[in-house]
Amino acid sequence: AKMLRLDPFPAAGEVGVKTTGQRALDGYAVSNVRFETMPGLFVHANVYEPAASEGPRPLVLRSHGHFRGTDTDPEGRFQGDVQRLAGLLARGGAVVITWDMMGWGESQQVTHRRPETTALQTFNTMRLLDAALEHLDVDPDRVAMTGSSGGGTQTFLATALDPRIHVCAPVVMVSAHFFGGCDCESGLPVHDVPADTWGKRLRTSNVEFAALAAPRPQLLVSVGGDWTRNTPQVEYPYLRDVYRALGAPEAVSNAHFADEQHDYGPSKRRAVVAFLADALGLDRAAMLGPDGLLLEDPLTVLDRSQLTATTASHPLPERALDGDDAVWRAFVELERPAAGAAGAAAPTGR
To answer: I need a labelling partner for 28 at 20 to 30 A (CA). Which of 123, 240, 243, 323 fits?
Structure first.
C-alpha cells in the first residue's frame, strides 16, 4: 500500500458519477458512465444491471487486461468476452462494472506503460467501489472482483488492499515466477520492498499477494499455455496451505485448463460464473444450463460506439487533467490524512 501511495488512503472527496447513455437488453441493461475518481481524473466505464431486481444486489467488479482489439472485437472493456461475462452475471442478478485501464479505451488522460499506472489503477478500482456502494444499491457484504491477465493482477492487488472485496477470481495471472509484462503491473516495483534494518531488498511474488485475500473465497483460473501452467502443483498448494492455516482450506480452489491458452474464454467464464453463483447467491439457472454450459446466446455484444461514455454531446469537462505529469502530480498532492487524525475521513472498510 505504501509503494502505491495508498497508505494512508488519499482523501479525494466523493466520486463524481455521470451517466451519458443507457440501453435495455435481454434481461439486463447497460449504462455508459464516467467516474471522476479524483478532481480532474475521469474513468470511463459501463454498468450492467439486472432488468428486474430488488436491492441490495451483489456487485462484481470486472477488470480487463492487455488484450488488443481487432476489427471485429474491440479492445479492453469493449471486448466481446468482457461484455458476455458482464451481461450474463447481470442476468443472474448482479450489478457489474467494467472500466478502462489508464491509457486504454476512452481513458486517455495518461499513457499506459508507466510505473505510476499501478498506483492510479488500484486507486481507481477502490474509488469505483466507493461509488458503487454509494450510488448503485448494492450489497456491501456481497462484493466480488474478477479479471484476466493484467485485469487479474488488478484483481489480486485490489483484493489484497481492500477488505470490502469479499470474493475474488483472478484469471490466467497468479504466478510465483512471472509478474506481468507491463509497468502497470510491476513498474514501481511493488515486488521489491526495501528492508529498513539491513538495507537489502526483500523479494515477494504475485502468489503471496493473492494469499492476502485469505480467508475470503478465491478461485484461481489457470491454463497450460502461459505462466500459470504450474498452478496445480505450485501456486494452488501454497495458497491452500495459507488458507488452511487460517482455518478455511475449502475457501480457495483452482480451475485448470491444461490444453488452453491465455484468455478469458468460455471455459474460464463457465468456471467463474459457477463460482460466483455460489459465493454471491446469484441465479444459476439464468446463467448456466442443466448441462453446465453458459447461456450466452441471448446476450448482445454491442459496438464500441454504443458503449462510450464521452461523446460529442457529453465531452470531458474543461477541468480534466491533461498528461502523465499533471495527473500524477495531482494524485501525489492529494491529502493523505493520518489514521485516526481529527477530521480524517478514511473510506469505510479501509
So the answer is: 123
C-alpha span between 119 and 3 (Å, rounded): 8
Contacts of 12 (CB under 8 A, 6+ apart): 37, 38, 39, 127, 334
Residue 345 CA to residue 307 CA, distance in Å, equals: 34
Runs of H (alpha helix) within 136-222: 150-161, 183-186, 206-211
High-pLDDT (> 90) share of the chain, %: 77
Q: Are 63 and 272 in contact (CB under 8 A)?
A: no
**Cα 241 from chain centroid (whole Å):** 25
pTM over 0.85? The answer is: yes
**What's the pLDDT tens digit per position in 263-280?**
999 999 999 999 999 999
Show Cβ contacts of residue 149 under 8 Å, excluding neighbours closer than 6 positions.
65, 66, 67, 171, 172, 173, 180, 262, 264
In the chain, the amino acid numbered 55 is G
pLDDT in tens, 139-162: 999 999 999 999 999 999 999 999
Question: What backbone phi and psi angles, to 5 degrees, belong to 128?
Answer: -65, -35
Give the Cα separation of 119 and 65 in Å (integer): 16
Cα separations in angstroms, 267 against 109, 273, 339: 35, 10, 44
**Cβ pair 43, 107 in contact under 8 A:** yes
- In degrees to the nearest 10, what's the CA dihedral of 127, 130, 132, 138? 150
Rounded CA gap, 146 and 159, in Å? 10
Distance CA 94, CA 86 (A): 9
Beta-bridge partner residues of 220: 254
